[in-house]
Each structure stands twice: as C-alpha cells, then as structure tokens.
Amino acid sequence: MNMKTVLILLGLALATIFALVCVLLTRGRAPSTCQHLPLEQEDTEDGQSLVFADLTPEEMVQVVQYLQGNLGVQLVDASRAKPSDNCIASVDLQVPAKAEVLRFLDGGGARPTREALAVLYFGNQPDPNVTEYVVGPLPTPAYHRDVTVQKYGGKVPYHRRPVTGKEYMDINALIQRELKKAPQFLTTCCESDGTDLAILTTAPRGFNSGDRTTWFVLFHNVAGTGYYLSPVGLEVLVEHRDLHVSRWQLRKVFYNGRYFASTEDLEQEFLARTLEVVRLKKPQADAVLGSMRPRHSPDSLGPLQIEPQGPRYNVRGNRITYQGWSITFGMNPNSGPRLFDIRYRGERIVYELSLQEALALYGSNCPGGMSTRYLDGSFGIGRFAYELVQGLDCPYTATYVDRHYLAESDTPKTNQNSLCIFEHDSALPLRRHFSDSQSFYYGGLRKNTLIIRTISTLINYDYIWDFMFYGSGAMEVRVHPTGYISTSFLHGEGTNYGNRVGPHTLGTMHLHHMHYKVDLDVDGQLNFLETQDMEYEIIKDPWSTQNTIERPYLRRKRLEREDEAAFPLNAPMPHYLSFASPNPNKWGHPRSYRIQIISFAGKHLPINSSMERSVSWGRYQLAVTRRKEEEPTSTSIYNQNDPWTPTVAFTDFINNETITNEDLVAWISVGFLHVPHAEDVPNTVAVGNSVGFFLRPYNYFDKDPSVDSPGSVYFSSEQDARACGTNPLACLPTTAACAPHLPPFHFGGFLNL
C-alpha cells in the first residue's frame, strides 16, 4: 500500500469520525428549533423616541460646564457645598411641550429642541433661593432661561430645598459632638459611645413655613443588618436653618418617653438616678432582628424562566417593541419611572404614564415617628433605583438597562442595570375554553406579559415599580412594597400605634400612598369621560304579566366637568369609568379605555391639617382634569420641607372646567394601610401589599385583539393534539431542549454608594 492510499484512507476515517460526533451531539433535537426566531417587523420610527430620552452623561457634563461658565457666580460642587454656597443641585431632561412633540411625531414637524432642566441652590446671595433654568440646545448649550417664576408663580424660598448629603453629614457631626456630653448614660443604656449608632432622619422639619428643625432617631447599628429594627429610645431635635453650620443647635432630646433640653441635662438626670434607663445589650450580627442572612444552606434550584428561541421583544435605545406594543421609557431622578408614547398596533393609547409621588405617613408615641410624613420624590425615587439582582429582582435572562443621573454632584453617576425588561409567563391562561357540548375542542392563549421594572430603595423601604403590557391591549401598573419597616422604641402606650415586634421595638403603623399621572389619548387627543354602573328595575314579566322580575340595567353617564370627575379617596366609584373617543367602533360604541383601580388605601390627612394641601392629590382616588402644560406634575420636590406653603398644590388643578372632548389627564392614587406585625421581621413581604391599576380596552376594538396572537392554541377531538403542526404545545419538548447559555452572575450595585 503506497503513501497516497494511506493518506486517502486516513482522510476518510477522520471525516467519518467527525460525522458521527456531529450526529451524537445533535441526537434528539432539531437544530432549527434552537435558532433565535426573527422578531416581528415593527414600524420604523427613525429615532423619534429620542425626543423623550433621558440625558446622556455627556450632555449632563456639557450643561454643568455651560452653567459654570455663564452664570457669573462661583459654583461649588454640591457634594461639598455648604448652605452658604451656590451649587448645581440636579440636571435632568426638560421634556418638550406636548404640542411640539406631536407635531414632530405625527405631523412631520421639526424635532423639538433638546433641552435640560437645571436646579440650582443659591446660598451665597443677599436673597438665598432655589432657581430652575432651562438650558439648551443640547448637546452644545448656548442659552439658559430662568423658568422658576413661570412654573411656580414666584421664587422658591431657600428653606424649601431638599436636604443634601453634605447637610446630613454636618448634622451627624453635630449630633456626635452632643452625644459626647452624655458618656455614662450611653454606656449604660446602649453599650455605646455614640459613634456606632445609626442616625435616621424624619420629615417634614418643623410646624411652620420657614422651619428647618428635624427629629433624628438613633438605632443600634450592626454591620450587614437593618438597623431600622433596633431603636435605642434616644431621639434628638436639630435646628439647621441657618446658612452657617456653626450656628446649628440641638434643641431637644427625647429618651424613653421623656423630653430634655440637652444631652447634658440627660446625663445629669442619669447621674442623679432620676432617669429610668432601659439597659440594652449591643446586638450581635447572628441574633439581631434585622438580619437577612440565610438560616439554612441553599436548597434545590427552583423554576427558572428561559427564552428558548430568544426574547420576543426588542429594545432599541429608550424604545421597546413587543407584539404590537411600542413603549418609550425613562427615569426622572426625583419622581422615578416615566413612560411616553405608548402605542398598540400603531395607535397611541397613552402619551405619558409617570409616577408622581410616594407618601409614607407614620404614627407613634415617639416624636420622630409621630411627625414623619416622607414625600419620597424629594429624596429621589429614580436616583435611588440601584442595580437589580439578576435571577431574583428580575429573571436571570432579562434585558438590563443602565440609568444615568446628575444630583448633588457636578459629575454624572450611573446606576448600572437598574431597569429591566422581560416577558413573563404567568402560568395562567389569558383566555381559554374547553367545549364539551355540540362539538369538542379546546382553545386558549397563555397569559404572557411584557414587564418593565425598576426598584427604588428609599431608606428602609424598597418599592418594586412594575409596568405590564398584555396581548389583549391592556396595561397594568403595580407597586410592590417590601424592605424594612420603620420602628420606634416601645414605651408607655406604644401599642396604640402598632404592634410589638421585638424586645423593645414597636412596629409603627403607617400608610403608603402613591400617585400617578396618566395622560390618555384614546383614538386621538380629544376625549370625554363616561361612567357605567348597574341598577335594578322591577318589571312585570312580559310573557304573562303575573310575576315581577328584578332586572339589572346599565346606567350610563357622561361626566361634564372636573368637579364631577374628582372621586374622593375610599368613596364608592362607578364600576366602569372610561376615557372615550367621539369615534365609534364597528358596533357603534365609543372607542374607549377603562380605568380600573386596585387599592386598599388608608385614610387621607384631615383637610384641616396645616400640611394637607401639600399632599392634596391624596384626597382623590381618581381625578380627571384638562391637560395643561403649566400643570406637568401633581407635586414638587420642595413640598417636603415646606408642606405648610406648598410649591405645588394639586387641588388647585381642579376648578370645574369642562372635560368634554378635551385633552384629559387621569391622576390616580393607590395605597394601603400597614400595621406592622411579627411577620414583617426581618422584612415586609410583597404578598398582599401590591396595589395599582389597569387600563383596559373597552369597545376600543371590534373584538379581542389577542385572537391574532401567533401563540394561540386550538385543537379539536378530530385532530391529533400530539402533532406539533396542529398544537404548538406539542412542540415544547423539543424546543425546551434549547436551554440558553447563561452568562456568569455579576453585581456591581455597591460601587456607587
């Protein structure tokens, strides 16, 4: 045998081995089923969604540099600015006027000028104030204009500004100096010298416009655990209104039910043995109430959501498309998630859907707890939406998106992977029917949902914000609160204000109320509001007239004015309330979208409260007003620190204007009363606390649009349901073999803290 023959045989052998290996590797699966399916072709929009896009870090830097060079005053970086300095507090997108945007999106008009909104604190002026500037055009700014008076009717007083991180640091330093004046008391009560105690702010800060006096609550702080469950009974009142930090003062001390003028007085009473002291052991990490460390080793892996043929949605920049849906998304650093230009099958349903505010109002027999009314927008709902944990906060294979913001610093910051998008299989039919009469068949469609999610951590609470889109043309908005409860030191009649959840810990009762803006454009901008409800009429039966029937009938009503469309919180509402178009569907009914609210709200503040106007949006579970460019938000970040003279009072929006065939906005409040209990330790669970609302098509279509879904299932008794060509569910065993390659777990969420 010559060399040439040997080489030929060797080549044939290698080819055979290679072919066998390929067969073995692919046995039992059809390679074609594992290929990613092409996404449905969406209408091209040539970057139109960018009109709503959040600012890029580069744009933020350009705005900062422009302001530093063109205001004619010295600007100190807000991260180290004293109250007596000038600084840039924040920079965000200036959303263009709706008329301009619609001319661009729908009418072929010019793209609106891209601009930023910059908030500045001017402390180094004869008349300290907060000023807002619109800066443009981006990306290369050349002008700025003061819009403060235009927006708020006057200058914003300096005392209304949110508290900065630097101000908190200076307050903490003052408290530490004061604690040093009570060393023996601290050693006895808390096994502490004060430096290892956590200090928690309350808000608002006083009782009258102009006050800036805050109660701070002290807790045992154990690394790696939630200090919120370990109050030591000590609270201090700090006055910090003066522009000069050296003039700030500690005004009052509270301990275990008693008030003192100073920490020196507290120490003297302790030394005189006239003070009842509760001796607390310093908690250990493995026994502290707030520990979330696992008690057991990991169990077997639970169900895992995968996309065998890749995602069925598409994310391009700030725009998502999914089975007929098109959504533009963004994040306001103060008020949080915001969506724009929501379309279904090419038709705009919602122009803007945005979170406005989150209120947490507490009760307690301790001063910090009883005076707390957190307005989380002033702290930063969007700013404190940190990186999401893949596989727990969102499915492992979700699409994660970074969000950028500039607040309390001249340098932009990035919260990586802080918003996620995914399709969710709820393991429930969206619709189904099994026919057992006349003919035998089964038809149905899985309830798959596109979810946009972000999670804000606001001190102790974590709010999971969900926006969901269904194949039926419906939308759902949900918030799921979790995290730690806030607590007070248990003393006296404390259980009148909550439940005991630890040796000396009172879980304080509170309510959570959230407010949303929904600018619906149902089959056009001009809509009217219609309600429908059930009544009974008593009639004689028409076939014999001998008997009576209680016949339900539909009572329709068109609401003509804003006062009619302002529904008080917790009062009965019509079961059906819809934004309706003058245009009918095929069957002659107005094309409409129904608002359906799911809420268990607590009681709103009494209207005679001195601070009620600052949260007057909470009076209403739903209020519908005419849309006005000068009424863009229901609240203001300045309301927190001056709720007695609110910068924005929502109730002023409702002035009985006509709402027939107008551009309308629905303002929706949802919430729940929370009385903490033992099962809230260490964390409140989201089960049972979720609230929100639906936007559902109501005669908008001529039939359920989900019938056109390619995922529909139908087979009859005359068909072989096991055949993949007949029943898509029969294809699952093969398709499910296409398990995706999961990337390594990554988390960098601690880097920006």
UniProtKB/TrEMBL annotation:
Residues 305-706 form the Copper amine oxidase catalytic domain. Contains 1 topaquinone per subunit. The modification 2',4',5'-topaquinone is found at Y461. One of its GO terms (molecular function) is quinone binding. Its EC number is 1.4.3.-. Residues 161-258 form the Copper amine oxidase N3-terminal domain. The active site is at D376 (proton acceptor), Y461 (schiff-base intermediate with substrate). Keywords: Copper, Metal-binding, Oxidoreductase, TPQ. Residues 74-143 form the Copper amine oxidase N2-terminal domain. The keyword Oxidoreductase applies. One of its GO terms (biological process) is amine metabolic process. It is an enzyme of class 1 (oxidoreductase). Its cofactor is Cu cation. InterPro entries: Cu_Am_ox_TPQ-bd, Cu_amine_oxidase, Cu_amine_oxidase_C, Cu_amine_oxidase_C_sf, Cu_amine_oxidase_N-reg, Cu_amine_oxidase_N2, Cu_amine_oxidase_N3. Topaquinone (TPQ) is generated by copper-dependent autoxidation of a specific tyrosyl residue. GO terms for cellular component: plasma membrane. It comes from the Eukaryota. Belongs to the copper/topaquinone oxidase family. This is Amine oxidase. The gene is Aoc3.
